[in-house]
Amino acid sequence: MNILNETEQNQGYRLLFDGQTLNGWAATTHPEGWLAHNGMIICKGGTNGYLYTIDQFEDFILQLEYRTEPGVNSGIFFRWTDLEDPVNTGLEMQIWDTFDQKEMVKNSSGALYDLVAPSSNAVRRAGEWNEVIIKCDRNLIQLTLNGTMVVEADIDQWSIAGKNPDGTDNKFIYAWRDRPRRGHIGLQDHGGYAEFRNIKLCLLDSITQ
């Protein structure tokens, strides 16, 4: 747990969490709401805000595991540029307890929040570990949940602020096509208990073919 295997080392992966401390991370508000314990980053869930990487990343593959208590809403933010405005300047892979949901929508677990609904319901029951892979390759975004690619999106198609390519509304005050692609990675405290582990990242230009 929280180690790199030989293949990952050869591909250039790095651990974003050392399993013991929050070194390399900072909180936007309520730092007391986060701790490193027993190989996990724990979101206590009694406050709100975000934990984010001090470093910023552009084109990468991010892997991590998470689990939550029942009913918990959270998220994994990436390409987040303004620490004071994560909602509008960070893309989010939705974390939510939607195991029993029949119809996937743009806030179902695995969604590219408010932009693309997941193609299928791949989240596990609350309390079970979920495996996430987020790939950002220039304008292309791929979100994989528990081995199923649930989102493939060309972010350049979001060319109008507040609008999706199909003309429906979204929450964003900026057009994603025009946004910077280098930013922080963040974990959301939305007032619910969540655990994260095995957080690792590889820059795409460092992968050994």
Helix content: under 10%
DSSP helical segment count: 2
Shape: globular
Rounded mean pLDDT is 97
What letter string, H or E per element, gives the SSE order? Answer: HEEEEEEEHEEEEEE
Instruction: Report on the biggest sheet.
Output: 8 strands, antiparallel
Report, as a whole number of angstroms, the end-to-end distance. 25 Å
Cα-based radius of gyration, to the nearest Å: 16 Å
What is the oligomeric state here?
single chain
Give a count of the beta strands, DSSP E runs of length 2 or more: 13
Structural class: mainly beta
Regions with pLDDT < 50 over 5+ consecutive residues?
A: none
Topology of this structure?
Layout: H1 6-11, E1 14-15, E2 25-27, E3 34-37, E4 40-43, E5 49-53, E6 60-68, E7 73-80, H2 86-89, E8 91-96, E9 130-137, E10 140-145, E11 148-154, E12 184-189, E13 194-203
Antiparallel strand pairs: 1-13, 2-5, 3-4, 4-13, 5-12, 6-9, 6-13, 7-8, 7-12, 9-10, 10-11
What does this structure look like?
The chain contains 2 helices and 13 strands, in the order αβββββββαββββββ. With 209 residues, it is mainly beta. It is globular and about 45 Å long.
Main attributes?
209 residues; 37% strand; single chain; mainly beta; five-stranded antiparallel sheet
Briefly say what this structure is.
The protein is mostly beta strands. Helix content is 5%, strand content 37%. It has helices at residues 6-11, 86-89; strands at 14-15, 25-27, 34-37, 40-43, 49-53, 60-68, 73-80, 91-96, 130-137, 140-145, 148-154, 184-189, 194-203.
